Amino acid sequence: MKNKLTISIIGGTDGLGKWFAKYLKNKGFNVIITGRDVEKGKSVEKELGVEFTNNNIEAAKRGDVVIVAVPINVTERVIKEIAPHVREECLLMDITSIKEIPKRAMEENVKEGVTVIPTHPMFGPSTPSLLRQVVILTPSEKHKQSEWFGKVYNFLKKEGAKVIVIPAEKHDKIMGIVQGLTHFAFISLGATLKELNVDIKESRKFASPIYELMISIIGRIIGQNPYLYADIQMFNPRIKEIHETFINQCKEISKIVKNKDREGFVKIMKEAAKHFGSEAKRGAYYSDKAIFALASEIEKLNKLIGREIAVKNINSNVIHFGILKDIENDYLILDKNGKEQRFNILKVEVFFGDELNELKKKYLERKYIDISILFKKDVDENVILNLLKKIFDIEIIDVYEGDNIEEGYKSITFRIYGYNKEELKNIEKEFLNIIKNIGGKERFK
């Protein structure tokens, strides 16, 4: 796509609509967003540097590309509202997670000459970019041959996305499994644990690694927007059959267990494993890797207790610096200048060593102290400096021989950097102890 096209995002003040508004604005496009909440819209307008209007039809008329990014339950209605106003030779898209209904609504309501590309980005608004993200396009054969389709496809590929092109009907059938069955099963598990009044925190003390993974996945799903998940269940036309099949299988297995039919149970597991084929082993490898990664992360953090670290929130990218005081369950406790702050281990990246030092240089204001040291004249100050650089952020700012300097000696002034008074106090103490052991002595006391 060439820059300076105007892209109108209907529902661009929140969620994935806002994500695309920011992303496309940063790529040089003119972006218009709409939303019902004027105050929120004006705030996003200022935040992203885009244009806001609460008039969907006006935005649709002005856009070279019009993207519908509203909740699933109102998508069809909004499409019928704005589709007739999209200009000829322009492009109309939607980014909801079902495709048959919006595809039909768009194609039935646009003018002749408008291209329709129903789209499903398989990621959420916390994703940093399109790199390695899956984007599904479901145009009809007519629109697949259009110039706009080529532009969209090439743009996504250039941004590093994995692009899949399939019919809308096939998409909804697959998504009925990938999203519908997955969400249905794990929400059902969460509701079951609630009905059994299971103390989740207590149960994790006795958890196997697989139970830990299951609880984490349940927590991830039930912690999302419940209205979005309800719409995925209720608006995909393929869901009914999937639910019925799942529930029937649950009843069948429950019956086998009730009857203590051991061979019947074994048969179901074996047949399912046979259907999975090599994917069963792949699943074992993936789960082992996830379990190992969690265990390794905790082991690494335990070794860092008492040391300075940087903690980066993977959603907001905000970085915090402090001493790792302790680890409690899924949380690390950071001592920030005497104040404790808790961070969920699963939601942060932790940096130490050289990476920590680079982050401190980038984000913190450097302070320094100057210390003058007497060394014998024949000492090579560069050798001393190279030794000290392995320990401190340090440089030489002056070398002096002459008045007020002891005979046979020279004064070397070091500038040592830190980030607060307490740190510089500790650095000075460590520095002078090293200096004493390599034959230097402080010039001023």
UniProtKB/TrEMBL annotation:
Top-rank taxon, per record: Archaea
GO biological process: tyrosine biosynthetic process
Residues of the signal peptide: none
Alphabetized InterPro entries for the sequence: 6-PGluconate_DH-like_C_sf (IPR008927), Fdx_antiC-bd (IPR005121), Fdx_antiC-bd_sf (IPR036690), NAD(P)-bd_dom_sf (IPR036291), PDH_C (IPR046825), PDH_N (IPR046826), Prep_DH/arog_DH (IPR008299), Preph/Arog_dehydrog (IPR050812)
Keywords: Oxidoreductase
Gene3D superfamilies according to UniProt: 6-phosphogluconate dehydrogenase C-terminal like domain, Ferrodoxin-fold anticodon-binding domain, NAD(P)-binding Rossmann-like Domain
Statement: the UniProt record of this protein carries the keyword Oxidoreductase: yes
Prephenate/arogenate dehydrogenase domain location: 5-287
NCBIfam families named among the record's database cross-references: PRK08655.1-2, PRK08655.1-4
Name the UniProt record assigns to this protein: Prephenate dehydrogenase
Provenance organism: Methanocaldococcus fervens (strain DSM 4213 / JCM 15782 / AG86)
Organism lineage string: Archaea, Methanobacteriati, Methanobacteriota, Methanomada group, Methanococci
